[in-house]
């Protein structure tokens, strides 16, 4: 390396000297301004000093022996070389990553869009597609694999399915609670018909829906057709007595009046009715046609009655099942039954996770 010092009255002149002397490859190491002449440096002429260097290829051993001002040691050179290599590798890696981003986003965004189209909340959809593999072999020919991975991931939210199980000894008591008109009474009729007529269990009905005469009549008609007893209760004490009277049954199904989630008094009344027996298996009945925000509110408000399961109705009327997934994502809760129409007793089945997830991923 050749290092030289140049002085001139302007920086342009100094640079011209550097260029003509050392060539275009010269590197400027240092520049400074100073005054030449005058009194103690004052009033002198302003000058520019430029220190420049150029790499000279070694010519024989003589060139190597030539002393230079900033000759790096062999160790330094090795360090620089390895840093350069590392930088080059990092650059390559960055380029690879950047080139992958649009592809990954496009692929994940198509699954994300599908979830959102099915009314899965955007935040939840984003979390669900996050971290799905972006291996090239998967992106390319086999993208259904990624879809399958998402399918499996969604199934995890539907894993806890538990219908009504009749104990060897004792009576199973099941109550359906929920907002108005979601299908509680119809579902009670479907369950009663299936357990009594199809499975041959001894079943009794209790209705606590005494708000409307029509409501009692509705369930009484079903009880008569099925040929099972029905009790009407107004107070917690009557509930206790009715449960005691039917302690010989395999299954007692309790129908309740639809409650407004905004009526704290009604909810407290319902809670009091159900707290007479800690073993009552309480299912919160929700319609799949309910908007997620409303369903969320319902789950929060009905939680005072400590339901253990969700029972989803009107799947035949729902345009999608986003609400179901959103709820299960927020509240990992057991699922019992899903109903799919007005026909008693046919339109009901035990929740089927893969069937439900398939509906959530419906194109
Ligand atoms: N499409 C469809 N309709 C249903 C389903 N389940 C119930 N229904 C209908 O929904 C309406 C209300 O059903 P009910 O069983 O009376 O609802 P509820 O929850 O008992 O209503 P309240 O007692 O007033 O709170 C009726 O017309 C039922 O036939 C279902 O799965 N699909
Ligand atoms: Mg009803």
TrEMBL record:
Keywords: Bacterial flagellum biogenesis, Bacterial flagellum protein export, Cell membrane, Cell projection, Cilium, Coiled coil, Flagellum, GTP-binding, Membrane, Nucleotide-binding, Protein transport, Transport
All residue ranges annotated as the SRP54-type proteins GTP-binding domain in the record: 171-362
Coiled-coil features, chain-numbered ranges: 80-107
One example of a Gene Ontology biological process annotation: bacterial-type flagellum organization
Its membrane topology: Peripheral membrane protein
CDD domains recorded: FlhF
Ranges that cross the membrane: none
Family indicated by similarity: Belongs to the GTP-binding SRP family.
GO MF assignments: GTP binding; GTPase activity; signal recognition particle binding
Location in the cell: Cell membrane
Domain AAA+ ATPase as annotated: residue spans: 170-316
Keyword Transport annotated: yes
Pfam families noted in UniProt: SRP54
Stated role: Necessary for flagellar biosynthesis. May be involved in translocation of the flagellum.
Organism of provenance: Sporolituus thermophilus DSM 23256
Chief site of localization: membrane
Any single Gene Ontology cellular-component annotation: plasma membrane
Protein name, as recorded: Flagellar biosynthesis protein FlhF
